[in-house]
Amino acid sequence: MRLYVAIALSALLSTSTAQAGHHEMGEAIGSAVIGTVFSKEQQAKDMVVGDLSHQQIWVDYIKAHNDRDLDKISDINADDWTGYVPDGSVVKGSAAHIEWLADWFASPDDPRWTIQWMIANSEVNDKGEVEQWLTTRNDITFNDAEGNRITEHHVHDIQFVGGKIKKIYVYARPAPGE
Fold first, then answer.
1. pTM of the full predicted structure?
2. Mean pLDDT score of the chain, rounded to an integer?
3. CA 92, CA 107: separation in Å to the nearest integer?
4. Residues with Cβ < 8 Å from 41, sequence gap 6 or more?
5. CB-neighbour burial class of residue 139 (10 A; exposed 0-12, middle 13-18, buried 19+)
6. 37-57: buried (b, 16+ CB within 10 Å) or exposed (e) per residue?
7. Residue 103 contacts by C-beta under 8 Å, 6 or more apart in sequence?
8. Is 151 exposed, middle or buried (0-12, 13-18, 19+ CB in 10 A)?
9. Which of 138, 161, 134, 140 is closest to 76 using CA atoms?
10. Is residue 97 within 8 Å of residue 81, measured between CB atoms?
């Protein structure tokens, strides 16, 4: 019996020390290298963990999209917001983005997003400035031209400046028909 108690206690202690590396959302964790970013001259630089609080901003942003809360979306956008959408077009300015969304939300498409994962990262750009980014995978479901619900997988690269979303690159692919 003592052997079982010793094994259980040992397992408990080893599990609790394994959790020591856990961090809460928004908590600073230092500059753990998570990847590499290349300059225009193809010089490799470290990509490190970014500001994890940007994840909650993204959660709120997606909720505002699903709730059709254009005021909240506008509050999260930087005034000089720029979006690069999958069809190759570029939307410049928060006001233009809100107008673009209002038209889309009024259409029969009925877009709805679900977040799948997020990775906060930061890098030092060619000017020596730290840039904060969030890379996230989201699924979007909407009605196609025939009224069928379809899903696409989207990856967003989002740049944050001063707690606001300044730039978004959106990459899309149809979900497999599995």
1. 0.81
2. 86
3. 21
4. none
5. middle
6. beeeeeeeeebbbbbbebbeb
7. none
8. middle
9. 161
10. yes
Write out pLDDT tens, residues 37-78: 998 889 999 999 999 999 999 999 999 999 999 999 999 999
Q: DSSP character for 88? A: S
Question: Is the CA virtual torsion 94, 100, 103, 105 positive or negative?
Answer: negative
Fold of 34-174: Nuclear Transport Factor 2; Chain: A, (3.10.450)
Q: Which residue has the higher pLDDT, 104 or 26?
A: 104
DSSP 32-54: -EEEEEE-TT--EEEEEE--THH
Structure tokens at 147: 């009224």
Q: Which of 140, 157, 152, 153 is nearest to 84 (CA)?
A: 157
Helix (H) or strand (E) holding 3: helix 2-18
